[in-house]
Specification:
Blueprint (H helix, E strand, L loop, with lengths): L1 H24 L7 H5 E12 L1 H6 L3 E11 L6 E22 L3 E24 L6 E21 L7 E25 L3 E13 L1 E4 L5 E4 L3 E4 L2 E4 L2 E11 L1
Antiparallel strand pairs: 1-2, 1-12, 2-3, 3-4, 4-5, 5-6, 6-7, 7-12, 8-11, 9-10
């Protein structure tokens, strides 16, 4: 009987010791002050150009990421940073890979017109309720660039690309929207619905048709130039502690 108890203890003691050691090793992460004050949002965006820019190009579509740092405990005042990417024009054509190979191998040449808007500034938020309005403003810039790429007809990966045109300009922004809570326990998840007006300076940019193919593999690029004002409409999700 004693020998049986000793054998059981010999087995049980290492098991219990291992369990206690594992429990001591696996600790629940306690967020620090920086993590508690930080939150982020990911949005689908639509750009609606206005003025001369609106006469020259159409609507654009893309994504936008937002980082927010609360300057007070309740989250009334925050510092906000935005970075987006959107495409406002695309054209493509199928051509032989080369005159030497002939027409047996076809490739797809695609040209995309893109905008990268960036901004940083303060945000004021009503932090409670079923609908929580906010307003923000800031300064930043936006980059216009057009890029052509080549891929095989049966291949989804580009194997060559060229930036045909790019330009940048400073901007100031002002906007607002609402947060609608959908989950508030360990993590806060909210719908983010809003819009932002972007007042941009003068920049050069292209649209579909601005690049003309000439004989002897030459091209002619005809850029447009104007003020770059637009409205960015956002729909997405905000997540934070």
């Amino acid at each position: 009987m004693l020998a049986h108890s000793v054998r059981l203890a010999a087995v049980a003691i290492p098991v219990v010791a291992f369990a206690l050691a594992a429990q001591d090793t696996i600790r629940v992460h306690v967020p620090n002050e920086f993590e508690r004050r930080s939150s982020g949002a990911l949005n689908l965006i639509q750009s609606r150009p206005s003025g001369t820019l609106g006469d020259n190009i159409g609507l654009g579509y893309g994504i936008n990421g937002t980082y927010l740092f609360r300057l007070d405990q309740r989250g009334v005042f925050s510092l906000r940073a935005d970075a987006g990417f959107l495409q406002y024009g695309e054209e493509s054509k199928h051509v032989p890979l080369s005159s030497t190979v002939g027409g047996r191998i076809q490739v797809k040449v695609s040209t995309n017109n893109n905008i990268v808007p960036l901004s940083i500034g303060p945000q004021l938020t009503w932090p409670t309720g079923r609908v929580r309005p906010y307003a923000n403003a800031g300064i930043g810039g936006q980059f216009f660039y057009t890029q052509s790429s080549v891929q095989g007809d049966d291949d989804s990966f580009d194997f060559a690309n060229t930036t045909n045109q790019w330009d940048k300009t400073l901007t100031w922004v002002a906007g607002g929207g609402v947060y609608v809570p959908v989950y508030e326990r360990n993590m806060k998840v909210m719908l983010d619905i809003g819009a932002q007006y972007v007042a941009g300076g003068r920049a050069q940019y292209l649209k579909p048709g601005s690049i003309e193919d000439l004989p002897n593999s030459q091209i002619r690029i005809t850029p447009m130039e104007s003020e770059t004002h637009m409205v960015l409409v956002r729909l997405g999700v905000k997540i934070g502690l």
